[in-house]
């Protein structure tokens, strides 16, 4: 597993938790067996290590824990892991009947516990199999003293292990659902803003355009009717007036949409990123930005926030506001990314006020930096 710091930063929160869960379960298996081997330092300890390796391989075959579905590959891993567990159990059984002593008997219980943690939770008839395995281990390995108690103890420990793995899988499903809900909420916020602007555009200029269409058709008909040339000209003058008024209304609407407040955009950015599962840290305040740059800065904040939601898997971001510019940094830069068209538009907008825009990506960290000449 190639888990470099850069790759870890690129993982989403559910992927990190899934990796943590799998490694924890596998680490517990290997840790127990290695402790036994170091303490015993004999061939029986090697059987415990082999059982643990079988459990690790089985866990590695589960897409619920790896986050990747590879049917053929997973099937092979499952077969190999299960075969190692069965072989370890049989080898321990042979060792017991060869006079290896009580240490070999523990191999049976140890293998049963590992199977209950790594294999049985994913099998349909897990409980009957657990009972059968506990009975076979108790009587096959020759527990003469209170065998029924041994069966009950193995079933109890096995049930706890099955419950541990089942609880881990349940938690993973909850984390996945929460992440999906955050992303859906962020997408809905973007869609809601688009719908609002579309509704405002329709309400403001829709009626004027309809009037222009009707009057243009009327003027066209009057122009082809003898004696109505003056009336047709008058209708065209009204069309011209309506067109000018509609253009002004549209400009006013766009100015109202573009005339955004920097403080509102900063608050909106924090709300949107929180909904998308990204923690935003704000350094400085909107008041520190010169007033003549507020509108441009607000657009940078809006576009930068939208790009984080759409194009990254960031879990943390920083917005730094100052007199000479602003910077947006996030930890979820994609492996390959081109320059979004929105950033080109921002660069053009900033050039009109003497500002510059620079972006860079380094080690999974994306930085958007804007500078302008402060008064």
TrEMBL record:
Signal peptide start-end = none
According to the entry, every stretch annotated as the Signal transduction histidine kinase subgroup 3 dimerisation and phosphoacceptor domain falls at 193-258
Origin: domain of life: Bacteria
Q: Which Pfam families match?
A: HisKA_3
Under what name is this protein listed? Histidine kinase
Molecular function terms, GO-annotated: kinase activity
Q: Which PANTHER family match?
A: NITRATE/NITRITE SENSOR PROTEIN NARX-RELATED, SENSOR HISTIDINE KINASE DESK
Indicate the transmembrane segments per the record.
Answer: 20-38, 77-97, 103-120, 149-172
Matching Gene3D superfamilies: 1.20.5.1930, Histidine kinase-like ATPase, C-terminal domain
ATP-binding keyword on record: no
InterPro entries reported for this sequence: HATPase_C_sf, Sensor_HK_TwoCompSys, Sig_transdc_His_kin_sub3_dim/P
Which UniProt keywords are listed? Kinase, Membrane, Transferase, Transmembrane, Transmembrane helix, Two-component regulatory system
Q: Does the keyword Kinase apply?
A: yes
């Amino acid at each position: 597993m190639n888990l470099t710091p850069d790759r870890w930063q690129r993982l989403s929160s559910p992927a990190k938790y899934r990796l943590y869960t799998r490694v924890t379960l596998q680490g517990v298996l290997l840790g127990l067996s290695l402790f036994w081997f170091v303490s015993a330092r004999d061939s029986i300890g090697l059987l415990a290590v082999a059982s643990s390796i079988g459990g690790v391989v089985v866990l590695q075959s589960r897409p619920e824990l790896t986050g990747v579905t590879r049917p053929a590959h997973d099937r092979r891993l499952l077969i190999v892991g299960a075969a190692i567990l069965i072989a370890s159990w049989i080898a321990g059984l042979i060792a017991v009947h060869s006079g290896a002593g009580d240490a070999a008997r523990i191999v049976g219980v140890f293998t049963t516990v590992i199977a209950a943690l790594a294999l049985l939770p994913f099998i349909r008839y897990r409980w009957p199999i657990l009972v059968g395995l506990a009975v076979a281990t108790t009587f096959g390995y020759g527990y003469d003293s209170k065998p029924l108690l041994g069966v009950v103890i193995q079933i109890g420990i096995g049930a706890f292990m099955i419950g541990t793995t089942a609880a881990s899988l349940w938690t993973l499903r909850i984390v996945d659902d929460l992440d999906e809900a955050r992303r859906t909420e962020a997408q809905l916020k973007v869609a809601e803003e688009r719908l609002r602007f579309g509704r405002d555009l329709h309400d403001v200029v829709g009626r004027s355009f309809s009037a222009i269409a009707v009057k243009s058709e009327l003027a066209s008909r009057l122009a082809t009717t003898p004696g109505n040339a003056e009336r047709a000209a008058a209708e065209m003058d009204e069309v011209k007036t309506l067109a000018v008024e509609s253009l002004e209304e549209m400009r006013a609407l766009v100015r109202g949409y573009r005339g955004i407040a920097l403080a509102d955009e900063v608050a909106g950015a924090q709300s949107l990123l929180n909904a998308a599962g990204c923690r935003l840290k704000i350094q400085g305040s909107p008041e520190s930005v010169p007033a003549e740059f507020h509108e441009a800065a607000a657009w940078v904040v809006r576009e930068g926030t939208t790009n984080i939601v759409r194009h990254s898997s960031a879990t943390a971001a920083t917005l730094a506001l100052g007199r000479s510019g602003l910077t947006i940094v996030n930890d979820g830069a994609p492996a390959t990314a081109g320059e979004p068209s929105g950033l080109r538009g921002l660069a053009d907008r900033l050039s009109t006020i003497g500002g510059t825009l620079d972006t860079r990506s380094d080690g999974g960290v994306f930085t958007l930096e804007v500078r302008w000449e402060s008064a």
